[in-house]
Specification:
Elements lengths: L8 H8 L5 E5 L5 H14 L7 E5 L2 H15 L1 H5 L2 E4 H12 L10 E3 L1 H14 L9 H13 L4 H6 L1 H9 L5 H15 L1 E3 H14 L1 H10 L2 E4 L7 H11 L5 E5 L14 H4 L1 H4 L4 E5 L7 H11 L21 E5 L2 H19 L6 E5 L5 H10 L4 E3 L9 H14 L4 H8 L8 H14 L3 H7 L2 H4 L5 H16 L7 H11 L2 H7 L3 H22 L15 H12 L12 E5 H4 L4 E6 L16 H15 L2 E10 L1 E4 L2 E4 L4 H4 L23 H9 L25 E2 L10 E4 L3 E9 L6 E6 L3 E6 L4 E4 L2
Parallel strand pairs: 1-7, 1-8, 2-3, 2-6, 4-5, 6-7, 9-14, 10-12, 10-13, 11-12, 13-14
Antiparallel strand pairs: 15-16, 17-22, 18-19, 18-22, 19-20, 20-21
Helix pairs in contact: 1-2, 2-3, 5-11, 6-7, 6-10, 7-10, 11-12, 11-13, 16-30, 17-18, 19-20, 19-24, 21-22, 25-27, 25-28
């Protein structure tokens, strides 16, 4: 078959010209996989031996699908003989043949990340280092980054800059751990994923004959997603291509978003310097998206200075403008997104799997999960776990469960070891065995039996006593404090937050974000007027009520339905390479997207812009962007500005102004975004239903509404829809977050956020 007829003119040029270096700049949705696949098929059709073709990808799925497609074009037998696969798979195959030269058996073990972290943990223990400071995950990530930059343990220890960075991170002995880890792997005859690249570089450096053999064998080299290669991958490819320069790389600098994994955008930007005789092909026609989506993405990415300029275009329909969901709170944002999906499914008869909700950080998933469940919309979390399955979320929930019920053994086992208290598995196993013999819980057994009878040795009994005393103290507060106040006490007094803050690693920053989001969820639950205070809690919403709510939310009823027709929730990083008809890009606010960590560096800010570009170009038919005027940060409400990236796109591509101002203080006009749902008869939750204040309107006995801050002064008598009669003590703060402190008869002193509080002025 003449498969070249399936290609556009520029695609065909990129396929048939295979005797020189080729840089194929492939815009989003431009058919790059087809071009790469057809180029390989064309090589084989020109009588190039399959064994002379080296094709490198980043995922096994991509390699498998490409090989299957090549098989249909030129025959499965030829496709099977290709050297095609991921970098790690291909170079592991080479290292099997050459392992003895490097001091490894040919049957060496390949450690996955879990194996590697376990060995690192053992090294930390053997060196008698504090695991709370030397987190195995953080240390392993540091070692991994070093290996990707071809830095071995000896070089690591001798590098003044690296050791200074470790000292600044309060982990000065990381180099020693690396050295011990390297020795242990070698003694075990094992390589981790990073070693597969590092050792291939060492092989080609120290054994020129090996390099000559493989560079002679691989006459044609093709690399997918070249913008995602790290230094180790780049150097291997460059060495193999050196004799003949028959290298073809495919990529898009505008989609280089993995610098945190070691990817270097310089690899694709400098291709012309490495191969001056190169030929460039620009795949600029987008076959995926509407003209509006493509033009808006172009409009955005042109603001980056480091790029290979291209002008993508689409011959598809103009399409819908970018929809703007402009919310007061993050809860309203999730409600608006869920309602929009519900409405689109109903009106357009679209399947759920054509929808994706994208966010900058995994911690943002919680509210969207809850909104999906309330609307009975099936969903799946892609590239991550459910919010309530995160380890740090489960850790704090274990404490709360134990405060409510100290006899909860599962919660006891989890909480007593988090953060580390020096209470080992052996001690807990002995306590569990004694509890079984006594027919009591672990908590009761420890308090009722002498340590010797349990088999506990000093200093474990004292540490357990301190822990049990802490639980008893916190338990005594469960009805005196509301759920949020108690959760903050638990997070602080347990040492959990302090332990996460000890090391300023990316891993711990992410964990803190999840802890913050959990505390935000509890604060939201307490503030929700639909949740009546418990009689036990002295007029407060108790932690027991919150735990019951969480248990219902996280109970998936053992769903076994396949994920074929569900809305996808994922980070933008996880969405790369995927496409959906309807894409919701959420949390488009300064300090969130772009992320606050990127604002001090032009290079990092440009990567954030590329990340938003990736998000935009996932959509085929419609993009919806959403943002919230306010958001919880550690239990406090803070104001947000819409993302600068929205301002960088011409306003003609949006269905309404993004930065529209109001008379209430230069904040986005959120009323317009909500009106459509109100007019459509959709029920808006009471806690976010906003009623405009009209000073001239008469106020009836049941007319409770959010009050204008300037209408309240100290000494006024008011009535609250839930707490009843009260006296204003003071009014504090600035718009839009003004609060009133009120003394209520029978309920004590309460702090009310006036933009939500349902009250009426009595005098």
């Amino acid at each position: 078959m003449n498969f070249l007829d399936d290609l556009s003119d520029v695609q065909r040029e990129a396929v048939v010209n295979y005797q020189q270096p080729a840089l194929i700049i492939a815009g989003a949705g431009s058919g790059k996989t087809r071009v790469l696949t057809y180029r390989i098929a064309y090589l084989l059709q020109q009588n190039v031996s399959p064994q002379q073709v080296l094709a490198l990808t980043f995922t096994n799925k991509a390699a498998r699908e490409m090989k299957e497609r090549i098989g249909t074009l030129v025959g499965a037998g030829m496709a099977r003989r290709l050297w095609m696969g991921t970098f790690h798979a291909v170079f592991a195959r080479i290292l099997r043949s050459e392992a003895e030269r490097l001091g490894y058996p040919s049957s060496f073990t390949i450690y996955d990340t879990g194996d590697s972290k376990s060995v690192v943990k053992a090294c930390i223990k053997e060196l008698q280092l504090d695991e709370a400071r030397y987190k195995p995950g953080s240390v392993f990530n540091r070692i991994s980054m070093a290996k990707n930059n071809l830095i071995r343990a000896g070089e690591y220890l001798g590098n003044v800059q690296i050791t200074a960075e470790d000292a600044a991170s309060r982990m000065p002995r990381t180099g020693e751990i690396y050295a011990m880890y390297e020795r242990r792997c070698k003694l075990a005859g094992a390589m981790d994923f990073d070693d597969l690249l590092l050792n291939t570089n060492i092989l080609f450096r120290d054994y020129p004959d090996a390099l000559a053999r493989y560079s002679s064998l691989f006459r044609y080299i093709l690399v997918d997603e070249y913008q995602d290669t790290n230094y180790a991958q780049y150097l291997i490819v460059k060495k193999l291509a050196q004799p003949h320069h028959n290298i073809c790389v495919v990529g898009d600098d505008a989609q280089s978003i993995y610098a945190f994994r070691g990817a270097r955008i310089e690899n694709i930007l400098n291709f012309r310097n490495d191969y001056p005789d190169y030929k460039e092909y620009r795949l600029e026609e987008n076959y995926r998206s509407t003209q509006t989506i493509v033009n808006a993405a172009n409009n955005l990415i042109e603001k980056n200075s480091r790029q290979l300029h291209k002008k993508c275009f689409s011959r598809a329909e103009t399409g819908e403008p970018i929809h703007v969901l402009n919310a007061f709170t993050e809860q309203e944002e999730s409600f608006l997104v869920a309602s929009s999906i519900f409405e689109t499914v109903y009106n357009k008869l679209a399947p759920y799997n054509e929808f994706a909700i994208l966010y900058r950080t995994n911690a943002q998933s919680r509210l969207f999960e809850e909104a999906m469940r309330k609307k009975n919309i099936p969903y799946k979390i892609y590239g991550g776990m459910s919010f309530y399955q995160r380890a740090e979320v489960k850790d704090l929930l274990a404490y709360l469960r134990l405060v409510v019920n100290p006899n909860d053994d599962e919660a006891f086992r989890r909480a007593v070891q988090t953060p580390s208290r020096g209470i080992g598995t052996t001690s807990l196993e002995r306590l569990q065995a004694a509890a079984g013999a006594e027919g009591k819980s672990m908590y009761e057994t420890f308090l009722s039996l002498p340590p010797a009878a349990i088999g506990l040795r000093a200093p474990v009994p004292q540490k357990l006593q301190t822990f049990c005393d802490l639980i008893a103290e916190l338990s005594s507060l469960q009805f005196a404090l509301d759920a949020h106040e108690l959760a903050k006490e638990v997070a602080g007094r347990s040492g959990y937050i302090a332990a996460l803050k000890e090391t300023n690693s990316m891993e711990n920053i992410a964990r803190l974000e999840y802890v913050e989001e959990l505390l935000n969820s509890i604060k939201e639950f307490c503030d929700n007027t639909d949740n009546a205070p418990s009689d036990e809690g002295n007029g407060t919403v108790t932690v027991r009520q919150y735990l019951e709510n969480v248990a219902l939310i996280t109970d998936m009823d053992n769903e076994k339905e396949e994920d074929r027709n569900k809305v996808t929730l994922m980070t933008v990083h996880s969405a790369k390479g995927l496409e959906f008809s309807y894409v919701y890009i959420t949390g488009m606010e300064e300090m969130l997207f772009p992320n606050k960590l990127s604002l001090d560096s032009k290079e990092e800010l440009e990567e954030e812009r590329r990340l938003f570009y990736v998000a935009l170009t996932r959509a085929k038919r419609r993009i919806t962007v959403s943002f919230s005027k306010t958001r919880y940060r550690w239990g406090e409400t803070v104001s947000n500005r819409p993302s600068r990236f929205l301002q960088e796109i011409d306003e003609s591509y949006f269905d309404k102004p993004v930065f529209q101002e109001t008379a209430a203080g230069n904040l986005p006009d959120n009323h317009g975004a909500f009106t459509g749902y109100r007019d459509a008869g959709r029920k808006i939750p009471a806690r976010i239903r906003l009623k405009p204040y009209n000073a001239s309107a008469p106020r009836g006995a049941a007319d409770f509404a959010a009050e204008q801050p300037q209408a309240l002064t100290a000494g006024m008598h008011i009535e609250h829809d839930r707490f009843g009669a009260g006296t204003v003590v003071s009014v504090e703060g600035v718009l839009p977050d003004t609060k009133a402190i009120v003394d209520f008869k029978g309920h004590g002193r309460k702090t009310l956020l006036l933009k939500y509080a349902k009250i009426k002025v009595m005098s």
